[in-house]
DNA sequence: CGGGAAGTTGAAGCCAGTCAAGATTTGTGG
DNA sequence: CCACAAATCTTGACTGGCTTCAACTTCCCG
């Protein structure tokens, strides 16, 4: 961005906002007047079904954009919830589109962000549809870990992991019990350790090989 | 669109193109100079894995937009292939962005299309992650059927279905055998008939109930 | 220190995968 | 127009990865 663009973007930032852990940010079906960029903290996107089951659609990290669906389609297709305390950059929806009409490059970035999410969901779908439990879990954790690296959340091989095993299970379409047992196997193989609050990836290369994963490529993306 | 907008859009249409059934339109990893809107015919989006398995990411119907990922991220994350003969409206990528800078409303539409795809993939992920085989198949077929209705491909309760059972299986993460047996059960229950080339939905309401699906809502979306 | 949430582990059962063979349809060359 | 081959669909039998059920342990936090 040029300095002028940054200034213009700043002008449309309504403010910042703190959210406590375990609090919903946007609910499924909501048509919020606000949009957010995550400044810090982590969260979850999920859908709830009538029978009480839950599908976690993605994990939310700093830099993520929240509320695009509501802006463009009129309502969110999933709920977004804070897993840790979060700080959000708040934009106003109406101003937002005014801003975009004036800055087509930002519209391009927005489309880019949507395309990145689409791409990720395609990969997630492939993991759920085609991979057995162990490679599926490896794929998910490696992907989160790579994303965390890009936003500097890692300390060497480790990163904060504020999610429960139940969350991971709900993301991957596995039962909690099987998820737990598979994580135990991974821990014993010394390739990866998931302990409460912390994920450590000891050998990404070996993990990729044992799980038959070609590569975990997190695409470059713009930040608003 | 206003008449002027239609005219401007027409100007950036490079031409039309016919594609034979079973021909790839855009390959995974490709960075095409062209974008397409489907005028007629049906296709598939899919990803291939190293072990030879295949995940079908979506079914392609008239009105669908192809090539957004390559435009914005530099490469396609999946392959798009024609299942029937198709006619495509061709746009040039470079001109395209020029056009969009001049017409922000079209940029809005593009983002909308990306958001619709993101929403669909979230629902597909939920189906694969949370639903057993029978409701999963019902969800997929009802969704395709509703989409087909919106573009007037249905004749009463029926629609052309150019895909094999193997395609459906690869879309839903099920084996061909189990897909076949589940389809047989649905046929016997008189709710739905899938025969080669033709899908007939006899009782959408009852299907939704037996499959525990709240509603199949295909969001409104712009067409370029 | 007590209670609730999260993590762990074992046992039993089932949904869906795999293997295998046959039936049906489609396409094609003689 | 027929005959053969290839692709797709169908069905049965067996197997196994994952789910469910259940109990126990560990970790927090008030």
Describe the structure.
- In chain A, a hairpin with a 5-residue loop joins strand 4 (43-48) and strand 5.
- A four-stranded antiparallel sheet of chain A has the order 1-8-3-6.
- In chain A, helix 6 packs across helix 7.
- Chain A has helices at 3-12, 68-73, 93-102, 104-130, 133-150, 165-172, 176-188, 204-211, and strands at 13-19, 24-26, 34-40, 43-48, 54-60, 65-66, 79-82, 86-92, 158-161, 192-195, 197-201.
- By secondary structure, chain A is an alpha+beta fold.
- Helix content of chain A is 45%, strand content 25%.
- The first copy, chain A, has two domains: 3-102, Jelly Rolls (Sandwich), CATH 2.60.120; 123-211, Winged helix-like DNA-binding domain superfamily/Winged helix DNA-binding domain (Arc Repressor Mutant, subunit A, Orthogonal Bundle).
- The radius of gyration of chain A is 18 Å and the shape is globular.
- The first copy, chain A, starts with a helix and ends in a 13-residue tail after the last helix.
- Chains A and B meet through strand 5, helix 2, helix 3, helix 4 and helix 6 of A and strand 5, helix 2, helix 3, helix 4 and helix 6 of B.
- The first copy, chain A, binds a DNA duplex (30 and 30 nucleotides) through residues 132-133, 164-166, 174-178, 180-181, 184, 196.
Relevant terms:
224 residues, alpha+beta, Jelly Rolls, Arc Repressor Mutant, subunit A, 2 domains, four-stranded antiparallel sheet, 8 helices, globular, DNA-binding
Helical segment count of chain A = 8
Q: What is the percent of helical residues of chain A? A: 40-55%
What structural category characterises the helix and strand content of chain A?
alpha+beta
What is the general shape of chain A? Answer: globular
């Amino acid at each position: 961005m040029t300095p002028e663009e940054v200034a213009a973007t700043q002008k449309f930032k309504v403010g910042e906002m703190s959210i406590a852990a375990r609090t919903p940010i946007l609910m499924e079906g909501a048509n919020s007047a606000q949009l957010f960029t995550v400044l810090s903290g982590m969260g979850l996107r999920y859908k709830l079904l009538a029978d009480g089951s839950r599908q976690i659609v993605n994990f939310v990290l700093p830099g993520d954009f929240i509320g695009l669906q509501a802006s463009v389609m009129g309502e969110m297709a999933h709920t977004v919830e804070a897993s840790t305390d979060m700080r959000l950059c708040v934009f106003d929806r109406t101003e937002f589109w005014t801003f975009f009409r004036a800055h087509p490059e930002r519209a391009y970035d927005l489309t880019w962000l949507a395309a990145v999410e689409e791409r990720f969901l395609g990969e997630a779908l492939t993991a759920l549809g085609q991979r057995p439990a162990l490679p599926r879990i490896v794929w998910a954790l490696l992907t989160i870990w790579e994303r965390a690296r890009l936003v500097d959340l890692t300390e060497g091989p480790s990163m904060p992991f504020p999610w429960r095993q139940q969350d991971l299970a709900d993301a991957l379409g596995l039962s909690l019990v099987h998820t737990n047992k598979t994580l135990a196997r991974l821990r014993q193989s010394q390739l990866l350790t998931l302990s409460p609050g912390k994920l450590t990836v000891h050998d990404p290369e070996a993990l990729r090989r044992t799980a038959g994963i070609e590569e975990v490529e997190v695409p470059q993306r713009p930040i608003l």
